[in-house]
Design a protein that fits this description.
Number of helices: 3
Mean pLDDT: 92
CATH topology: Nuclear Transport Factor 2, Chain: A
Helix content: 40-55%
CATH architecture: Roll
Strand order of the largest sheet: 2-1-6-5-4-3
Number of strands: 6
Distance between the termini: 47 Å
């Protein structure tokens, strides 16, 4: 009985982690294509975005759409290179190198995504 419980728990965690990683990758791929509709799709309607550790920046997919839509339109060189990814449970931590302009060196950043109910519900940025 204990073995079945442990096996079931491990399977559930692996399933949660696969879903979390899939959502993080979807938004990263769309970011690099500057596809605003595909970019916001993995996010919850009331996604909350923070500057790490707890400085609230904004809430909502609509606000995210506006912010990133303008950025995608004005930065044709925009590209995010994934340096490292850690997935544990419903949390994805991405270490990134972000190029805004080919004329400037890339910026190092960390993005932490918290998944709830099949969507990215919270994001924390470290720069």
């Amino acid at each position: 009985m204990f073995l079945l419980f442990v096996t079931g728990t491990i399977f559930a965690q692996v399933t949660v982690e696969k879903e979390a990683e899939k959502l993080a990758q979807e938004q990263l791929d769309a970011y690099n294509k500057r596809d605003i509709d595909a970019f916001v799709a993995p996010y919850a309607d009331k996604v909350r975005v923070y500057k790490f550790p707890d400085e609230f920046m904004y809430e909502g997919k609509t606000e995210m759409y506006d912010i990133y839509g303008r950025m995608f339109a004005r930065t044709p060189d925009l590209h995010c290179r994934l340096v490292n990814r850690i997935v544990m449970g419903n949390t994805v931590i991405d270490q990134e190198e972000v190029t805004i302009s080919k004329n400037d060196p890339p910026m190092n950043a960390i993005a932490i995504y918290k998944i709830k109910d099949g969507k990215i519900a919270e994001v924390y940025f470290i720069q």
